[in-house]
Design brief:
single chain; about 240 residues; mainly beta; five-stranded mixed barrel
């Protein structure tokens, strides 16, 4: 009986070891540790793939190896770098590389010194192409049938799952995250200090543009790993 139990334990242990490898023979990372914004990581770059806006790196951290993505920059193979925090994504598909990563960390950059950067990430999109968050915007008149952000935010439950039209000025853009472009707009109105609406779209928009979007309002959208949008306009169609 003892021999049988020992055999079962050996089999289970082997299965556990096998489950710790992904398709590319890289060790899976600990999602809690790797997504901690207070953690500084020391890595060595094993491989780099140019993915357009992003550089995809296979890195070693101690005995672990995993993939991470950062805004495209010059990186030297074999060199040691540091980064803080990062966001863990599961089953992320890069159309540019025609590859799906079972697990990948998105970080806002790496550095060659251990000193922790005094920089906060305010949302899950660690790479902001451009941003003008503090720009004062004069109230923008909505088109016929349009909804002012003040009304949207104050009565958001009544807009859930409904298609609406909004017009505003673009203050921030994040492109190519989860196969979407993320556009933040304001219209000069606000409710309880909330004045910016996030729009997901396939359109390419520039900061400073004044745009009109039509899309569906979604509430409490959970993308995982603690990132939740209380309100989001999805599938934004640019109205010209």
């Amino acid at each position: 009986m003892k021999n049988k139990m020992r055999y079962i334990v050996i089999i289970i242990s082997a299965l556990v070891l096998l489950s710790c490898k992904d398709k590319g023979n890289y060790s899976k990372i600990d999602s809690v540790q790797e997504t901690s914004k207070k953690t500084t990581h020391k890595i060595v770059v094993n491989e780099m793939n140019d993915g357009g806006n992003y550089a995809y790196l296979n890195v070693a951290e101690g005995e672990k190896e995993y993939w991470m993505a950062i805004p495209n920059t010059d990186v030297k193979i074999g060199e040691t770098y540091y980064y803080d925090g990062g966001m863990l994504m599961k089953d992320f598909e890069s159309e540019h590389l025609n590859k799906t990563f079972e697990f990948i960390i998105f970080a806002d950059g790496i550095r060659d010194t251990e000193e922790i950067e005094k920089k906060e990430v305010s949302d899950p999109h660690v790479h902001s192409n451009t941003e003008k968050p503090n720009e004062v915007v004069v109230k923008i008149a909505q088109p016929k049938g349009g909804t002012a952000l003040e009304n949207l935010f104050s009565k958001k439950e009544s807009f859930a799952k409904k298609s609406i039209t909004v017009k505003g000025k673009v203050v921030k853009v994040n492109n190519g995250i989860l196969d979407k472009n993320w556009v933040h707009i304001v219209d000069g109105t606000q409710f309880e200090n909330k004045k910016s609406l996030t729009v997901t779209t396939s359109e390419l928009i520039k900061v400073g543009d004044t745009v009109t979007f039509k899309g569906t309002i979604t509430l409490d959208k959970d993308f995982g790993y603690g990132y939740i949008y209380d309100i989001l306009l999805e599938e934004g169609e640019l109205i010209k």
